Amino acid sequence: MGISGVGLMEDPAWHGTKKVQKGVGSGAAGFMEAVMERAGQEEKDFNEKAFGSVGANAPEEVKKAWLEAAKEIGANGLGMSGNGMLTHISEMMAQRMKDWINGTGSTNDLLGSTVQSAIMATEQALYDLGRSSSAGGLKSMDVQRMREKEREFYLSFLEKLNALL
Questions:
Q1: Alpha-carbon gap, residue 123 to 100, rounded angstroms
Q2: Residues paired with residue 3 on neighbouring β-strands, in sequence order
Q3: Are 78 and 50 in contact (CB under 8 A)?
Q4: What's the rounded Cα separation, in Å, for the pair 122 and 110?
Q5: Is the torsion defined by CA of 69, 71, 73, 78 positive or negative?
Q6: Which of 58, 112, 139, 164 could be a cystine partner for 62, CB 3.0 to 4.6 Å?
Q7: Could you tell me the pTM of the whole model?
């Protein structure tokens, strides 16, 4: 018997649910591992895509440093989240736009073709980030948090680049 269409545990519609609940243990663990692995791969793909849009001509060691810093911090220099959405306009994104508007350089080659050029671009992004933060302005707490993550990324990336010299 049911109340307002809701069946009791003795109803045939509920039969088998205890078996499903009991069997969730190992299957769910495997499923969750697969989901986490897939999410990790997607995040890596988006970090590689972000890198490709600013480091098309950068050496492989710069790419490796970028990916390591992004994994360590959980953010990258373009403000692109693990699902590919932009969280905010990052300083590297702003620099790409300035280059595009001014017609200087390639918009996907912000980091240049050497470790030194990647260091200079990252130092410039850090400088611009500090300057724009001190300029004030109203930013949501989420954007402030993302800009702090961006700063952490640049510092980690810079540390890894300097270790290559």
A1: 20
A2: 6
A3: yes
A4: 9
A5: positive
A6: 58
A7: 0.71
Q: What is the pLDDT of residues 11-39, one digit of tens each?
A: 555 445 444 444 445 555 665 565 555 55
| Residues with Cβ within 8 Å of residue 54, at least 6 apart in sequence | 77, 78, 92, 96, 108, 109, 110, 111, 121
Q: Can you read off the two tokens belonging to residue 121?
A: 């671009």
Helix axis angle for 24-52 and 60-73, nearest 10°, is: 130
DSSP 93-141: HHHHHHHHHHT-S-TT-TT-SSHHHHHHHHHHHHHHHHHHHHT-----H
Residue 164: both structure tokens together: 């290559």
Place of tokens 């800009």: 147
- Model confidence over 57-107: pLDDT tens digits? 999 999 999 999 999 998 888 888 777 788 888 999 888 888 888 887 666
Q: What is the DSSP string of 145-159?
A: HHHHHHHHHHHHHHH
